[in-house]
Specification:
By secondary structure, the chain is mainly α. The chain is built from eleven helices and five strands, in the order ααααβααββααβααβα. The chain is elongated, with a radius of gyration of 36 Å. The N and C termini lie far apart (about 125 Å).
């Protein structure tokens, strides 16, 4: 029969083509895996950044004396009136002033915006106007940085003002007598007078700011 003489048509590779189309479905899986890896890398980078920041903060705090660290803690505890380990704008302002930093309103607000966190509502489902609050850890970091950046002369002049009652610009014998009594130092009158005589360079019977700076910076 004539039809039997014709060679058979070659079969097309439909299965192979369909297989290739099916393989394309693996593309989105690869993309999802890549995106997940990126998120993991970002989380790891943030964690490394956080740990490095904490390490630097610890190093800065170690540069302070034990007395300075205690002053920071006491200032915070004194003005944290509700004892929630957070202070608001007014409490922060007076706490910093107690440590020798009398800052304008704009600078206080900038500290809160950078380092603070919003307050939580006192009661659920009630109107709430959040305030920015500064936790103790952030207060400690801010004050450590400012104390380390402060000119030593500023610290000395702050001590001078504690001696100089009434803002005379000089420390006289009465000032030394008062401070010695407040500190519980049993110094004799002759000893106090000798301290004035030793450092009174201009012979006016008192120690002025420059003379006090020279004493402390020697």
């Amino acid at each position: 029969m004539a039809s039997a003489a014709h060679p058979a048509f070659p079969s097309r590779g439909y299965g192979t083509s369909l297989g290739k189309l099916a393989d394309r479905s693996t593309g989105p899986t690869f993309g999802a895996s890549s995106s997940q890896q990126q998120r993991e890398n970002q989380r790891s980078a943030r964690e490394r950044e956080r740990m490095e920041k904490e390490r630097l903060e610890r190093e800065e705090q170690n540069q302070l004396s034990e007395e300075q660290r205690e002053e920071i803690r006491e200032a915070f505890m004194l003005f944290d009136l509700d004892k929630d380990q957070k202070i608001d704008y007014h409490e922060l302002k007076v706490a910093m002033k107690a440590l020798g930093f009398d800052l304008p309103k704009a600078e206080i607000l900038s500290i809160l915006q950078t380092h603070g966190s919003p307050s939580e509502p006192v009661k659920p489902n009630t109107p709430h106007h959040p305030r920015l609050l500064l936790p103790f850890a952030q207060f400690q970091t801010v004050m450590t940085q400012r104390i380390l950046a402060r000119d030593p002369r500023d610290e000395i002049l702050r001590a001078f003002e504690l001696f100089d009652e009434g803002g005379k610009g000089k420390i006289n014998l009465n000032d030394l007598r008062r401070v010695a009594r407040e500190l519980g130092e049993g110094l004799e009158e002759e000893e106090l007078a000798a301290m004035i005589d030793e450092f009174d360079l201009d012979g006016d019977g008192a120690i002025n700011r420059e003379e006090f700076l020279d004493i402390c910076l020697q």
